[in-house]
Amino acid sequence: MPTDGLTLDALTLTQGDFSLSADLTVPEGQTIAVMGPSGGGKSTLLSGIAGFLSPTSGRILWNGQDITPAAPAQRPVTMLFQEHNLFPHLTLAQNVGLALGPSLKHAASPKVADALSRVGLETLGPRRPAEVSGGQRSRAALARILLAGKPLVLMDEPFAALGPGLKQDMLALVDETLRAAGRTLLMVTHDPADARAIADQVIVVEESRALPPTPTAELLDNPPPGLASYLGTSARARSSS
Amino acid sequence: MAHRALPVGPGVAASLAVLAFVLVPLGAVALRAGGAGMPSPGDWAAFRFTLWQAALSALISCALAVPVARALMRRRFPGRALFISLIGAPFILPVIVAVFGLVAIFGRNGWLNAALGPLGLPPLSIYGAHGVILAHVFFNLPLATRMLLSGFASIPGEHWRLAEALNLPRFRFLEWPMLRDRLPGAFLLIFLICLTSFAVALTLGGGPRATTLELAIYQALRFDYDLGKAALMAAAQCAVCLAALALARRVALAPVAAPGLGLPPRLPSGPLWLDALVIAAAGAFLLLPLAAVVTSGLAGIAELPPTIWRAALRSLIVALSATALSMALALLMARTGGRLAEVASALPLAASSLVTGTGIFLILFRLIRPEALALPATIAVNAVIALPFAYRILRPALQQAEMNYGRLADQLGLAGLARWRLMLAPLARGPIGFAAGLIGAMAMGDLGVIALFASQEQQTLPLAMSRAMGAYRMEEAAGAGLLLVIMAFGLFWIFDRGGRDAN
Fold first, then answer.
1. Residue range B407-448, pLDDT digits in tens
2. A46: which residues sit within 8 A by CB, 6+ positions away?
3. Which A residues 108-147 touch B at CB under 8 Å?
4. Where is this protein localized, as stated in its record (chain B) (predicted)?
5. Which of these, A108, A173, A188, B126, has the minimum number of CB atoms within 10 Å of its CB?
């Protein structure tokens, strides 16, 4: 078993009467799309890796080290949620600064200014989330992830609320920041075009199981029956055109 | 969900402290009393009066709230939002001031009799059972109206449009199901509040036909020093309240504090004159007594004696201390109190604050001089009385904050104080300000335990005012009343405003 990257070792996650099993390895530095039908367990998988949900059995390892008992903040993991990524009462700079520790003083740190400029928000640090656009909020959340410096980044449909143009911009930004920095990325997406655009491999989550990663093009060109019916023929045609 | 289970910590300790604070003094009174005698016919009369006045007060408040809330729901007029805020005023109006205002309108020499006299009608009296009920309706009609307004606001706009599209009778299909849901909760809450009524019964009631249990407890303690009787009455009151509470839990009370300004997309019609009449009548009933307090107090407030100003300062200290204590308890219990906090936060609704005060006195009087105990005991009792309201305002706000941002905070390692400072306090700022304002105003106006203990040197403003009324120093009472209104509303306004200011 390779020790590099993320290993889910005979993992079982249970949420109410839903249960998900996973036994797989993600090599460090890879970008993985997590795909599958709604209710299949994609969010459960991410919650388990992030530490919001304790597994009923099995282990989670990062580079060979068991992180199963660690609290979310103690894990080498950070997560971008679907929404509520920024505290509404704090400025963008204060929100980003929280990556450095639980104090608002970090907002003035040059590291925060640097992270904001890397996502194109140089001048918007003093604004509050409600005072900027949806795309700018996504960028600020990304800046915090960049600054947090955790090697494993989880994204639960983070750009689903953005229009197609903005979403492409954000994916490009993820590509040139997080991916370029060698972070390991797990991104939940419904759109095969996203997967083709950014993912090296795809983890399919269906019928209470997370399958080991498969190279993206190979999987999407010849999807197994479950994934095929989820994607629909038109989606497949669009994604491969 | 297992991973969202809140840590059980200081909130449990706070809940236990509140339980002990209510139950230990009750035990002390019962122990000291020894074997209580059989209840006298007078005791039974107090028991019966307590029940039926509370039931009737709740019934009338709810029955009147339905047309008022409906009229406010379907009409838009300039100043509507202000009007809704203003008719909420009686809820935080100090009881003794409200009684003063009601007497000025409905009393023997009041405005109403002045209007009826020339018509040859006999003068009305406000003293007695009907006066007690009138005052209770005055306090609780706004509460019921607010609860129903928030109920109307909770009916989705789509449902109104759907009812219209399908030509369904709106009352039967939309309004009645909501009312059926909300009215039992409103009725029980008001019933509970009226069960432990003291200051209203003290000032407007009394005698064999209009004495509540709480007033009977006061008389047993203050005039007869009959602890056995007080303990028996307290137990009876507690049993009735607990029964009502148990019922109330089953019907799930609607939130107390919902502003309810929402409007259906297209307003259902009805006769305009009827709605206008209802709104005007409710406004007159709820606002004229307040106007009477202001007009009669203006003359006296400039010439208040120094004793009144000292009482006002004492009241301010009591109110601020009680607010701080109550908020600390409510926040801890709402966050980490678990199921125990649910029980502990509701229990004060069932407790007699006079018995709690007496119990504290019995436990501590060998150690501390009673005079030295009066203000601390008043602060503690007021903090605990207000707890049920504070808890129910804060708990949903903290839960919402935790639901939306808990995972983000977990991930950022925000724990303990940092979580309060950076996440919970700012996110729950509005409800925190509202709750603090409510507690502050309630404590400022409370006339309960203090009436039992205080000598001239420890009297608070409500007590000083009631003593001035009792001594027929009406000018002084009116001035003190206006000062009390200004302080209670001012405190509410400052805290509530502080919660709203988003800097």
1. 999 999 998 899 999 999 999 998 999 999 999 999 999 888
2. A34, A79, A154, A156, A186, A188
3. none
4. Cell membrane
5. A108
